[in-house]
Amino acid sequence: MTSAPTKPAVSPPDLIQRIQRRTLVVLSAAQIVGGVGVAVGLALSSVVVDELSRSTVISGFAGTATVLGAALLALPTAKASGRGGRRAGLSLAYTAALAGCAISVLAISLHTWPLLLAGLVLVGGGSAGSLAARYSATDLSPKDRSARHLSLVVWASTIGSVAGPNLAEPADRIGMSLGLVEKAGPFAFAALAFALAVVVILCFLRPDPLTLARAGAPAADSGRNRTIRTAWQTLRSTPMARRALVMIAVSHTAMVSVMSMTPVKLHHDGSNLDVIGLVISLHIAGMYVLSPVVGWLADKAGKVPVLVLGSALLLSAAALAGTAGHRVWQVTAALVLLGLGWSCGLVAGSALVTESVPIERRPAVQGLSDLLMNVCGATGTIVAGAIVGLLGYGMLGLMVGIMVALSGLWLITVRHRTP
């Protein structure tokens, strides 16, 4: 008579710490190469769609396609993680991005923009993998270090985001020298970057952090393959996770709405491309460079206070942007604060989501969080364009400020009411 299977032995704490350090290094490496793939692919996507379709309106769908892809792939990535661990989820996301790059190369060769948009939807898997990687960093983290570990992986994406666009032109030249049509080279290079990310995840993310964390979890329930329905049920019964998810969505919507329309505003004010590029670069620096500091602060002072700080920074950014007029320095200050506020919302909110739900339900809830985050971001871009087109950039700052203020007040009020 065979005995019932026993739960794997829990590793000693010092071994868990060593595994966690290795996990952070592997995830950071995947973030760097995956970030290069995302940035290289997106650097020319709207330009290529514009050339193939000969329509400025259609070219705007390039960014929408990748955001839509990131949203659509968030739940499959989470489901794969729930079934087979983080390796399965992350490799699925990066493989989808690899396939999207291959389709994009084919579409450019065939001069067909609808096929290119379809490829860009799959390229959004790179962003889905990048978002899922930050959650992977928390599976083995002590509770008092979860935000710091998450923020380190977020910070690693800075390298790929900054380096990627600068590699687009050399990749195009190399691609043409190898026989590819013009502007297909960057997508081929992005495909190689995503392939390398898959190799890094599959070969080096061992042992799988989520699987190991589950082995040490008490009395795991049957929720390993949780669906979106169960994720909603978990949020309804977990007020803290619900608060964190709302603040992540609000922070991302505010950031994307203002950031997406700022280049248009500066262009209409007469700023040249160098000025616009500098403003956006400083904004990106605000998003990522100080994320380890934000993570340390969230672990020391608490996640909710950092979420409140993020709301204050976003509100200040909206006020500065809405009253900037033609003052470029004020717009620049607004975009830097916008990036810092987004970093507070993402890092503290993601850590709070993770620590508020059981280990077995985390992938589903985290996937739902990324889905809502991307949907809200895409919606915010569309609504922001309509507001600026009809009412002006100042009214956009006012509307974003009202949204952030209401959510921040709600967070504080609910926090004080909760025992």
TrEMBL record:
Membrane disposition: Multi-pass membrane protein
Keywords: Membrane, Transmembrane, Transmembrane helix
SUPFAM superfamilies: MFS general substrate transporter
Location, primary (coarse class): membrane
Stretches assigned to the Major facilitator superfamily (MFS) profile domain: 23-419
Pfam families: MFS_1 (PF07690)
Location(s) in or outside the cell: Cell membrane
Transmembrane parts of this sequence: 24-44, 56-76, 88-110, 116-137, 149-167, 187-205, 244-263, 275-297, 304-322, 328-351, 371-390, 396-414
PANTHER family per UniProt: MAJOR FACILITATOR SUPERFAMILY PROTEIN (PTHR23534:SF1), MFS PERMEASE (PTHR23534)
Name of protein: MFS transporter
Lineage of the species this protein comes from: Bacteria, Bacillati, Actinomycetota, Actinomycetes, Streptosporangiales
